[in-house]
Amino acid sequence: MKELLKLYENKEPEIVFNWKDSETEAEGWTVINSLRGGAAGGGTRMRVGLDQNEVLSLAKTMEVKFTVSGPPIGGAKSGINFDPNDPRKKGVLERWYKAVSPLLKSYYGTGGDLNVDEINEVIPITEDCGVWHPQEGVFNGHFKPSEADKINRIGQLRQGVIKVLENTRFSPDVTRKYTVADMITGYGVAESVKHYYDIYGGDVTKKKAIVQGFGNVGSAAAYYLAQIGVKVVGIIDRAGGLINEDGFTFEEIKELFLNKEGNTLKHDNLIPFEEINEKIWEIDAEIFAPCAASRLITQDQINSLIERKLEVITSGANVPFADKEIFFGSIMESTDEKVSLIPDFIANCGMARVFAYFMERRVQMTDESIFNDTSMTIKNAIQNTYDHNSSKTNISKTAFEVALKQLV
């Protein structure tokens, strides 16, 4: 696996597009790792301090993810080094997408990511640039559909991603109009835990969980974990956190979800971040769901959880460990050798899978069919990993080997 990984990591990307904004200090990159299958896909993020190397590592991560979610295309990513809270953000995005629109028309598909919203920013701004849909390049480069077929499938994509959830099984509150895009990644993270225990053995309803991050992914993961009977005992967010070692009830988790402010956990008795960041790693929990930013978890933090009751980690965040390597650094490797580690490209593939699902011909557009498709995709990936290695350790190593054999 490590030889395959080294070959994959060291391969130069096929295309690097660099842009410098004419009106601000913003700088952006689109990195296309490969045009496997004639196209590449990956979202657009914005943050201060972002650089080309970060975009490259994420593009390679996307390519691995597509081996699970489909379609069989190359990985890509876009990133803009700019403050997302700056009032000039909209103008930066408008000029960025105008510059990158020839790629989006030909062979590159994008979407929302960190600090860039799929529904309110990516879709309307790219439409204004003459792009039918942010995924149009994947249609043209990979699927090569007829004009009529392209219109139909883009219609599915447009309707599906922004579809308001109507089924109370999937929406915490149908009156608040949560969309597929709001909930699907966190749902997949929770489903990966359910499928893990179904396949490897264990009663999920007797397990306790810690959730790191309470944004779109973490809050939805906590909600769906509680829904399937897991006791969430700790939540750590950038603003602070909460601990209840007996486990919050489903209704309490639902209330926390509904009361969050934007992507921030809100509660009258919030434990300050410095304090929660000391305490939470010393709680007994079988499940850990890192769903915050990348490269946060230290060796000491994960060792502390492992020394207690930790059984499985489901990676809601891309590359959650504080390793410098693109993939499989020393912290991730040592963790994988001690407990069950479901890698990010399986656990958080929900949004990528939704895009792939809507690109197919005439799919069902019900909440149940969309969410069940993501669940089955994750189940099949975990089962495939189990079929190659039935041990509860080295799950990520095995999953990477399965994926990389398709890419190298």
Q: What is the overall pLDDT average?
A: 96
* Count of separate DSSP helical elements: 16
For the sheet with most strands, the description reads: 6 strands, mixed
Q: Tell me the Rg in angstroms.
A: 20 Å
Fold and architecture overview:
There is one protein chain. Helices cover 47% and strands 14% of the residues. The mean pLDDT is 96. It has 408 residues and is α/β, with parallel strands linked by helices. Strands 1, 2, 3, 4, 5 and 6 form a six-stranded mixed β-sheet that branches. A six-stranded mixed β-sheet has the order 9-8-7-10-11-12, with helices on both faces. It is globular. β1 (15-20) and β2 form a beta hairpin.
In brief:
By secondary structure, the protein is an alpha/beta fold. The chain contains 16 helices and 12 strands.
